[in-house]
Write a structure and sequence with these properties.
single chain, alpha/beta, Rossmann fold, seven-stranded mixed beta sheet, five-stranded mixed beta sheet, 9 helices, about 30% helix, about 20% strand, globular, binds zinc ion
Length: about 325
């Protein structure tokens, strides 16, 4: 589809979100600045190509541009889909460009590569304990439970989930993390759900801070669903929520601009993530604004959207957040 077939207008959240509004909203190390500049050069030279894409939830092609930069001043556009209210990066890089970016620049630019792996592993273990608390009473995680974690990193979360006798497999695309966990005898493999030949039917599947990176979240969750069991396999999904910026990590300080990353394709709300579950064949058991959620493989895909958000309401929420921030003087670095 060519750009002329898209309906695109611009209504930025505030002046802070324009391309040249000021310095990056988070401090950057020398290595991060270098990685950012290399990314921008690859886009400018045409090695990476940006293309408008239909919305990943409703296939709509009408968008309102609400931001022109990310937290590190990478010149990417964040839009709201007028069809379903999903906030998303658009135009996007081609999938081969994202693959290359993850292999060559992502770790230096966006992950805390300065955090020692042992610390990262401990953090993952804390997350594992939080997940067990969240699903307690609804999901049996014990001897014989088969767990699949997508984006398992170094496997700290998986280790906690398996501590009571469950067996698990973690998939990830980062060999450094994977090797760290393998040294602790964790079952970690390189791969993603679409390309990995899974030898078991998982009872419990975990996606933590993964789905926001995916161009096709519905296709991803459908691929998991067919490997699970109807009425039995549970899915835990956690993503950064556009309505939880204020309760998020302290360095966000209620600033949505600090959450923007060129590699985040989707910025979910409770309503838009619920759409993803319904359209990929899951029944939502619980979901909050944070966003943490638990769903069950239901086998039936709902026809059409059951829940849609008005893009104007979404934009208004983001504007209110920004107004409060500027009023509190937090927007000034
Ligand atoms: Zn949409």
């Amino acid at each position: 589809m060519v750009e002329a077939e898209y309906d695109i207008s611009t209504s930025l959240i505030s002046g802070r979100y324009s391309a040249n509004a000021g310095p990056p909203v988070l401090p950057m190390s020398e290595a991060q600045i270098e990685a950012r500049d290399r990314l921008m050069a690859r886009i400018a030279s045409g090695r990476y190509e940006e293309r408008w894409s239909p919305c990943g939830i409703c296939a709509g092609t009408s968008f309102v541009v609400i931001a022109e930069r990310d937290r590190y001043n990478v010149a990417v556009k964040t839009c709201i889909c007028k069809g379903c209210g999903l906030v998303q990066t658009n135009p996007r890089l081609r999938s081969e460009d994202y693959e290359d970016l993850y292999k060559t620049l992502y770790r230096s630019l966006y992950t805390s590569s300065e955090v020692p792996l042992d610390e990262f592993f401990k953090k993952q273990k804390r997350i594992g304990r939080r997940i067990l608390d969240y699903v307690a009473g609804r999901v049996e995680v014990g001897p014989g439970t088969r767990i699949l974690e997508i984006g398992a990193g170094a496997g700290g979360t998986l280790e906690v989930l398996c501590a009571g006798g469950a067996v698990g497999l973690g998939l990830d695309l980062d060999e450094t993390y994977l090797n760290h966990g393998r040294n602790r005898w964790l079952n970690l493999q390189f791969g993603a759900i679409g390309s990995f030949d899974l030898a078991f039917r998982p009872d419990f599947v975990v996606y933590r801070h993964v789905l926001e990176h995916m161009v096709d979240p519905i296709g991803e969750l459908k691929a998991v669903r067919v490997k699970g069991r109807r009425g039995y396999t549970h899915l835990y999904v956690e993503v950064p929520g556009i309505d939880s910026v204020e309760d998020g990590p302290t360095r966000l300080r209620g600033d949505f601009l600090r959450t923007l990353q060129s590699v985040h394709i989707n910025y979910f709300s409770k309503a838009s993530l619920t759409n993803v579950f319904h359209l990929s064949g899951y029944k939502v058991l619980k979901i909050d604004d944070s966003i943490r959620s638990l769903a069950l493989v239901s086998g039936k895909e709902k026809q059409g959207l059951q829940v849609t958000e008005d893009w104007r309401v979404v934009l208004e929420r983001l504007r209110c957040l920004d107004n409060r921030l500027v009023g509190a003087g937090e927007a000034m670095l």
